[in-house]
Amino acid sequence: MKKALSVLLFIFLFGVNVFAAEAPPQSCDPNIFVSLSKKLVPSVVNISTVSIVKSPYGRGGPEEFFRRFFEDFFRQAPNAPREDDDEAPRGKPGPQNMPRAMALGTGFIIDASGLILTNNHVVAEADEIKIQFTEEAEEKPTDGEVVGRDPELDLALIKVKSKREMTPVVFGDSDALEVGEYVVAIGNPFGQGHSVTHGIISAKERKAPDLVILSNYLQTDAPINPGNSGGPLVNMKGEVIGINNAIDQRAQGIGFAIPINIVKNVLPQLKTKGSVSRGYIGVLVADLTPEVSKKLSVSEDIRAPFVTNVYENTPATRAGIKPYDVILQFNGKTIHSSADLVGAVTSVPVNDTVPISVLRAGKEIKLNIKVAQRESPQQMAKKSSKQKKKDNRSENIKTGMELEDLTSELAKDLGVKDKSKGAVVNSIAYDGPADKAGLLRGDIILEVDMKPIKNVDSFYDLVKEKKSYLLRIRRISPQGGEGFLVLTLDLKEGS
């Protein structure tokens, strides 16, 4: 009894934890957000722009898309002339009689000389750009000038001339981020001036809905609102690891930021040339899934993109790259995803020849590829086309879809300008095999289990058993965008 009392007394005096072997949690700075705010807020600026609305139908193009998607803070400028304004010039064509729209956004200083980074959609087609460094009433806004744009990454570089001492931010490493890390967002939400919010990294390599951009996003639950666009997303070291760019308006706590490592690759070109020349090799890729890996006899341990289409007369065709090739390395860099490949190709100067390693039929093949200049979205865009529905005979094997031959007339309706062959998906049965595989009406089936098909008959020559098939399809959107996908059609169940 005395021994037991002695043990209890020892535990009471010296605090021995006999119930848990884990070390106590490390203490953290309770004022970490105070310190970050003091350090970063002076480097963040508020941006206001005034644009003369030249057409009531909008601008169109990538800039208008970003404006509509992100819904930055737009309104009629308070100084816009009104029809009942006696001081408004009448009967005189020119900017003074045009409607004026104002937008508010955010930017941050990246160089003490006066370089500011923001989103392109914040300043797209702006006739006036004003920079506000503080919220002091006596501060006179400083004029800003766009010196570089990258609409595809939604970036803009602004130059200001000011005697004010400017403190640039420090860039971090967005690749080193982990899901769950604390982050801080700084911006100008709804015109409320310098505002600081915090949250965590919710996901990495996220694609935002309906967004065609040359980067996968960082997803965060740090509150981001209209007006935050172009502001920094900061880690606990005070380093900028992303640029706040988009929000999902259907929910709370779903915001997107452009990873800063992607931005680092294009900044030198924005500074020196004012635009970005991107490399192009002429392939479309998709990330491996367990189902596709099994069909291609690729180890499940390999994380890499594989080629879904090779365009004719491109660097890829000249290098010998083929559909279903799994891209392992590009210019000495290991490639784990389609985003990795985009970043690797973009970082190579146009006309440089670099090595590329692919996995084909279980064997690694080393090739050399000369990087060409990537065309702009406007050059690559195709005219919209209407899809025409035609009747098709029923087949014995139940795929959950109806097909028709890709005739020259149908190809024209779909927007196909080459002489491709294949079978076109005419209709899809809800929750059927084709629907579960992800097929859509208007898809053109090009291959079944890596064998090309010419028409509906050749499709059913290959698809005649209740098993799974690997389909390579061509998909053209109503807006003219084109993609090549590899899907698994499983007929083993419910056929």
Topology:
Elements: H1 2-14, H2 32-40, E1 44-52, H3 61-70, E2 73-76, E3 100-111, E4 115-118, H4 120-123, E5 128-132, E6 142-150, E7 155-160, E8 170-171, E9 182-187, E10 195-206, E11 217-220, E12 232-234, E13 239-247, E14 255-259, H5 260-272, E15 279-280, E16 283-287, H6 290-295, E17 305-310, H7 315-319, E18 326-330, E19 333-334, H8 338-346, E20 353-360, E21 363-370, E22 372-373, H9 377-380, E23 401-405, H10 408-414, E24 423-428, H11 433-437, E25 444-448, E26 451-452, H12 456-462, E27 468-476, E28 482-490
Parallel strand pairs: 8-13
Antiparallel strand pairs: 1-3, 1-5, 2-3, 3-4, 4-7, 5-6, 6-7, 9-10, 9-12, 10-11, 11-14, 12-13, 13-14, 15-22, 16-17, 18-19, 18-20, 20-21, 23-24, 24-25, 25-26, 25-27, 27-28
How does this structure look, described?
The protein has 495 residues and is α+β, with helices and mostly antiparallel strands. 19% of the residues lie in helices and 33% in strands. It has four domains: 117 residues, Trypsin-like serine proteases (Thrombin, subunit H), CATH 2.40.10.10; 103 residues, Thrombin, subunit H (Beta Barrel); 101 residues, PDZ domain (Pdz3 Domain); 109 residues, PDZ domain (Pdz3 Domain, Roll), CATH 2.30.42. The protein is built from twelve helices and 28 strands. The protein is elongated, with a radius of gyration of 28 Å.
